[in-house]
Structure prediction request, 263 residues.
Amino acid sequence: MRTSLEWRKYYEQNANALLNIPWDIGAELTDDERSAIAASVQGFQAGESSEGRHLYRYAGKYAQETGDHDYLAAIKLFIGEEQRHARDLARFLQLNDIPTIQTTFADRVFRTLRHVLGGLEISISVLITAEIIAKVYYRALQQATNSVVLHTLCDQILRDELRHVEFQAEQLGKLRWRRKRTFLWFTMGMHRFLFWGTCIVVWHDHRKAFQRGGFNFRRFWRSCWGEFNEAFAISDRAIASMAVPAAAAAFVSHIEAMLNRGS
Ligand SMILES: [Fe+2]
Ligand SMILES: [Fe+2]
Prediction:
């Protein structure tokens, strides 16, 4: 598990190692490709373009409470990456004469969930749900057209999202490691339910793009749940790596107390 300082350094390095997107190629989409992906990319572009104000505020509160100020710095850089995704997707849409949109129904539901329920854990839980599905979506979108610009852009976003999911999963582990096992199961049950519903909505809204990229419903469903299980295995490892030193420290202080009583 990486520390917040390591994550901050990762984001700083990543900003200097971006792929060169060949924007000069210009518009490439055929009519068929455009009708399969335009509305879908518009929706994802809107979803990526959150300002992250609430997340930043929650992270600031967490940094104050724990003294983990590198986490706040890492979150700021993470939000910057999401804004870059939104900017690049908007540029791709403009290049192909497709207008951007402000929001979608699914996007509004997601933002409401994050803001109404509030808190860092909820915010990250909702965020990681979208990012896990994004890892499948951009794989499909990459294969959906012959556009070199879109192919490279998806490559860049997939590289970033791989790390984003790890970053959020580890942070969820850090936030949840003290939780009682039964409550942890309940939390994961709720999260699975949220993920299940989100997958249904995403398939309903974006199936044309997924199908064009070679994903039928079965492949989509299996890929999403595969990514979900991988993400929460990371979270479980984070919980274990937090819990083992704490248990060892508790054991040592227990022994010390016994020895003190004996002397
Ligand atoms: Fe993103
Ligand atoms: Fe992301």
Summary: The pocket of fe (ii) ion (ligand 2) is lined by residues 82, 131, 161, 164 (CB under 6 Å). The chain has one domain: 4-262.
